[in-house]
Write a structure and sequence with these properties.
8 helices, Cytochrome Bc1 Complex, Chain D, domain 2, mainly alpha, about 0% strand, about 180 residues, single chain
């Protein structure tokens, strides 16, 4: 290739670049858009309480736990619990795995297993594992008790949650009466 052909290639590339710039300038003149004085959009947001207890109370009032538990089935709960069994044991006298043993969990104080190291969030959560508390926690653990180490995504289906809660209640020395 001689220098004349190289000059033609460079000139063609420069002409294309100049043409692109010129088309951009002409289109700005043809399609003029006035810029707003303040960039962005005004979004009106309703004031939301920052406390997690308010969110929990809203969920608790919306859920009729007796109707929810009526949907549950212990045999289905045993099947669904297999997801939990990777980290928790449910047998009497069972040892703690990645998560604490869940025998006698319904009605027990949150963070009460003595030989298990709970996250600070669960250790300071001053409640009992009631049917309502278990339901809220099983929906999405990390959202119900912020700061928990439990990395489980949760059980979205109401029937699955109700079944697991009934299964957990059955695996106890003294199962609580269903509401």
């Amino acid at each position: 290739m001689d220098s004349f052909e190289i000059n033609k290639i460079i000139a063609a590339v420069l002409m294309v670049a100049l043409l692109v710039i010129a088309i951009g300038k002409v289109s700005d003149l043809v399609f003029h858009v006035e810029k707003p004085k303040i960039p962005g959009y005004a979004v009106e947001v309703a004031e939301v309480s920052n406390s997690s207890t308010a969110a929990k109370e809203m969920v608790e009032t919306k859920v009729d736990i007796s109707a929810l538990l009526a949907m549950g089935d212990v045999k289905l709960g045993e099947k669904v619990f297999k997801k939990c069994a990777a980290c928790h044991s449910i047998i009497k006298g069972g040892k703690n795995n990645i998560g604490p043993a869940l025998y006698n969990v319904v009605g027990r104080k949150v963070g009460a297993v003595t030989d298990y190291k709970y996250s600070k969030a669960l250790a300071s959560h001053d409640k009992e594992w009631t049917f309502e508390e278990l339901n809220g926690y099983l929906i999405k653990p990390a959202k119900w008790i912020k700061g928990t180490k439990m990395a489980f995504a949760g059980l979205r289906k109401e029937k699955d949650r109700a079944s697991v809660i009934k299964y957990l209640n059955q695996n106890s020395d003294n199962p609580l009466p269903l509401p």
